[in-house]
Write a structure and sequence with these properties.
The complex is a heterodimer of chains A (about 325) and B (about 550). Chain A is of the alpha/beta class and about 325 residues long. Helix content of chain A is about 45%, strand content about 15%. In chain A, helix 6 (about 160-175) crosses helix 7. The longest helix of chain A is centred in the N-terminal third of the chain and has 15 residues, at about 30-45. Chain B has about 550 residues and is mainly alpha-helical. The longest helix of chain B is centred in the middle third of the chain and has 34 residues, at about 340-375. The two termini of chain B are about 30 Å apart. Mean pLDDT of chain B is about 85; it is low at about 1-20. Classes of the chains: A alpha/beta (about 325), B mainly alpha (about 550).
Chain lengths: ~325, ~550
């Protein structure tokens, strides 16, 4: 018995002990984007927030391996596909919060309340202002038409945002029409797909291609530095179901030690004052519809969102990836 | 500390048959295999987690990968490996030979400067080179101002471009080790060649190259392991390599099991490659011929001198000056945003961790190499190979393989000792675990430097010391250590910069708050803000240069 106590106290030296109230967040959203927000919350409430950042894949494996001994209270990530996967792996617990249900629209959260979207990013069409008139543009499907042959730039199909877009299209227009559309995109490519959205926007600006697709915040970061950037956004599919939107979001971890604190933090993140901070730092749209977007973001105009639940990005992701592989979208 | 079971044998009664097989003699027989086994466990455990936890293949995903991904990926990977192999050899070996045996303008500076690209992570090299040479980059933009178009410009985002960038990033492994081989070869070998009428360049082909083979192959294998395990660089090029399939299975098709199966195949492939190389090398010895005195350098004159300088300069500019210059330009733009006291914290933690890991890994590598030396049996050699396989596993996959058993052990410990208490971690998140994880990742790097140097020590040197009464670890300390100095320093340097650049294992195992430069760079590049990532990258390169410069000053052969 004595040995056991001795060993336990020895181990306790390594294990450390909990201080005042603390919330541990596992996050794959870049630290520089969430740190200011958490600092503000700590200042306001005195609650300490510990962030452990990594890629979403390793973080989910980490939560799984730690099981009931995980220190994590909240898992925060980008892309609904990842949130769906975390839920699928049983890493979340349902949240009961009237505040969150009131602040976050139904299409931006899990129907079973396992996770909530906290900021919205639109993935839409961008065009070179010198060579393309907005009247020539219409929809994602239209980018597959032969008139854009040799004029389209795309990011890699390995990117989760493209996978989510295609997954949503499968749900909206069916797998056959989606496959035809993606095949058309591949035929129209001006150059091999790029490694990131920035490169797509730069290529459009440099004239390597006329049109492409990117998330709005990549464009926001560029024009914030260079207002003369010769590229504009075009809101896709306004005559149809609306522009594809995705979320960054979070849920409470199944074995959270501080469930109450975690829910409170999520409620605060969905509130008016935090929503602006959450979205504006990255030129995203607030998930809470009562909150206005940043002035630069708002200057791109209002648009119709595709109101399909973002969860579909996850449930149809594997199907989308296989479809893109079949038509040779790299 | 000594493993010598001295004084125990005398107590054994001579007639007791069983006691001839008592612990001490068994231990004596098995002590080196035991040492090798303990070391290789650090890699074997994570590898087993990867291989064993995923034995049933998912038929739908495998069929899809076989139909649409694997044939092309394997083809791509084959060309990539062949290309990078040719690239690092063509860059590394001639440069090492030039600076080791010739004198030409700038030789003294090229000697150390040619190591510099080692300090730059391959993915950073990739995003700067793509940024410079792609259609929208400054080079082509400038060209378009003078010509109608740049359609004739070779595309950087191509197999050729990727091979070039990876060769520029990885040639220093070959360069460092080959230079070490050439300068420790001993002058007598080449002198014998000269008396037989061989010119110095003929001596290169017939004497130096064969004698440097373990070093060159060691460097080549490191470069190829990095190439095969790389994900960051290929994803910037959007090049579909074997790792692409691994990450596609995991992140896109949500099948970590398929990813593990693919990773197991990759490791098996590399294991076969390494064993074949060793088999082909056979039991030849690569000891030093004659005194340790360095070769007298042959002064090159005229066009040949300038050709040598020109080649070294060209490689240096492409592999270091250009990408580093681009980083500096970008950092200048993001200076206000990124230059703050946090940056010093990242740098300090990077250096501390890398230094601790480098020392630890080189010590373990020395022990392993010594075990192989003392017990030449197949088992120890096999274990030594297994122990160094961690370098070939894609980092994120290995990180999971490391974390899972540690989390399991923690869960057991917590269940036993802290049940019902507010404890969530015992071992995970400690520096000790992090350092052990680095050993399983980077042992190959330290080992290739130390083991190659071990080859230079002759059996007769050991015999002489033994006759003087040295044995066991005393022998290692008084005979091997002084002779291994150059190899140990090379090992420390290479591991130091490699740990600085490492991301996935650092992210997965770091104690809370231990954010390093690489972690910061990841945070910024994951959001695509490469120009903001430039400043921490510049600091990473500069800090990585410190040991490079210190070592090159201390010893020409380092």
């Amino acid at each position: 018995m004595n040995k056991k106590v001795l060993l336990a106290s020895l181990l306790a030296v390594f294990a450390g002990s909990a201080a005042a109230e603390e919330i541990v967040v596992y996050s794959s959203r870049a630290e520089q984007l969430i740190k200011p927000l958490f600092d503000a919350y700590s200042k306001e409430t005195g609650v300490a927030i510990k962030v452990i950042s990594d890629k979403e894949g390793p973080l989910m494996e980490r939560l799984k391996a730690e099981g009931s001994n995980s220190p994590a209270d909240i898992f925060l990530t980008v892309d609904a596909g990842n949130l769906w996967k975390a839920e699928d792996m049983g890493l979340f617990q349902p949240i009961k919060s009237a505040v969150l249900n009131g602040n976050i629209p139904a299409n931006l959260r899990d129907p079973d309340n396992n996770w909530y979207g906290l900021s919205v990013r639109a993935r839409t069409i961008f065009y070179n202002k010198n060579t393309v008139k907005p009247a020539q543009l219409a929809s994602y499907e239209d980018l597959a038409s032969p008139k854009w042959k040799g004029k389209l730039c795309l990011r890699s199909s390995k990117n989760v945002y493209n996978q989510s877009l295609v997954a949503t299209m499968i749900a909206d227009i069916g797998p056959v029409a989606t496959e035809r559309m993606v095949k058309g995109w591949v035929n129209n490519l001006a150059t091999a797909p790029f490694g990131n959205d920035n490169a797509v926007l730069e290529a459009i600006a440099a004239g390597q291609c006329d049109v492409g697709m990117a998330n709005t915040y990549y464009y926001g970061r560029i024009v914030a530095k260079n207002p003369a950037f010769p590229v504009s956004p075009f809101w896709a599919n306004q005559a149809g179901k609306g522009t594809h939107v995705n979320v960054s979001g979070a849920g409470v971890v199944r074995y959270a030690k501080n469930v109450k604190g975690a829910v409170k933090l999520l409620e605060w993140l969905s509130s008016d004052k935090a929503q602006n901070m959450f979205a504006d730092v990255n030129f995203e749209y607030p998930a809470n519809p009562k909150v206005k977007a940043d002035a630069l973001v708002a200057s791109w105009g209002n648009f119709k969102h595709n109101l399909i639940n973002v969860k579909v990005a996850g449930s149809k992701q594997a199907e989308a990836v296989m479809l893109m592989d079949r038509v040779g979208y790299k | 500390m000594s493993f010598e079971p001295q004084g125990l044998k005398a107590d054994n009664p001579p007639f007791d048959f069983r006691l001839h097989f008592s612990m001490p003699s068994v231990f004596r027989r098995w002590r080196w295999p035991l040492v090798a086994l303990l070391i290789s466990l650090l890699t074997l455990i994570p590898l087993s987690v990867i291989v064993l936890s995923s034995l049933t293949p998912d038929p739908v995903i495998w069929q899809h990968l076989l139909d649409y991904a694997l044939p092309e990926l394997l083809n791509n990977t084959l060309w990539l490996v062949l290309g990078v192999a040719a690239g690092v050899l063509l860059l590394g070996v001639p440069l090492a030979w030039l600076v080791a045996v010739y004198d030409f303008p700038g030789r003294k500076h090229f000697n150390w400067a040619l190591m510099l690209p080692l300090a730059m992570p391959a993915y950073v090299m990739a995003f700067t080179q793509v940024g410079l040479f792609d259609f929208s980059g400054p080079v082509q933009t400038l060209l378009r101002a003078h010509f109608d178009n740049t359609r004739w410009f070779p595309p950087i985002r191509s197999t050729g471009g990727l091979v070039l960038v990876m060769s520029l990033a990885f040639y220093p492994y070959v360069y460092l080790l080959a230079r070490n081989a050439f300068s420790t070869m001993g002058r007598r070998a080449l002198e014998v060649g000269q008396t037989l009428g061989l010119s110095r360049s003929a001596g290169f082909w017939h004497i130096a190259l064969p004698m440097a083979r373990p070093w060159i192959m060691g460097g080549l294998i490191l470069a190829l392991m990095e190439t095969l395990a790389d994900f960051g660089t290929v994803s910037i090029f959007n090049f579909d390599a074997f790792t692409t399939a691994i990450y596609k299975a995991w992140f896109s098709l949500f099948s970590l099991d398929t990813a593990k199966q693919l990773a197991s195949l990759l490791v098996a492939l590399i294991f076969v490659m390494v064993v074949l190389e060793q088999y082909a090398r056979g039991r030849r010895a690569y000891v030093q011929a004659g005194r340790a005195a360095p070769l007298p350098r042959l002064r090159l004159a005229g066009a040949r001198a300038w050709l040598a300088s020109g080649y070294a300069l060209l490689v240096l500019v492409l592999a270091f000056v250009l990408p580093f210059g681009q980083l500096l330009v970008w950092s200048w733009g993001a200076l206000e945003q990124e230059w703050n006291e946090a940056l010093f914290g990242y740098a300090l933690r990077s250096v501390t961790l890398s230094m601790m890991a480098a020392l630890m890994i080189v010590c373990v590598a020395l022990l392993l190499s010594y075990a192989r030396r003392r017990d030449g049996g197949a088992l120890v050699r096999l274990l030594a190979r297994v122990a160094t396989l961690g370098y070939a596993v894609p980092g994120t996959v290995l990180a999971v393989g490391i974390f899972v058993p540690i989390a399991w052990l923690d869960n057991v410990l917590i269940g036993h000792f802290f049940a019902g208490q507010d404890v969530t971690a015992v071992l995970k998140g400690t520096l000790a675990v992090m350092l052990l994880a680095y050993v399983s990742r980077f042992l190959a790097v330290g080992y290739s430097a130390v083991d190659a140097a071990m080859n230079r020590i002759t059996r007769s040197q050991e015999e002489a010391a033994r006759n003087l009464g040295y044995s066991g670890f005393a022998l290692l300390r008084h005979v091997h250590l002084p002779l291994l100095q150059g190899g140990l320093l090379t090992g420390v340097l290479m591991v130091f910069v490699d740990v600085m650049k490492e991301m996935p294992i650092t992210m997965m195992t770091r104690p809370f708050g231990w954010d390093t430069l690489a972690v910061r760079i990841y945070g910024l590049t994951s959001e695509g803000v490469f120009d903001q990532a430039a400043l921490p990258a510049v600091v990473l390169v500069l800090v990585g240069l410190i040991p490079t410069l210190l070592l090159s000053r201390q010893k020409d052969v380092a």
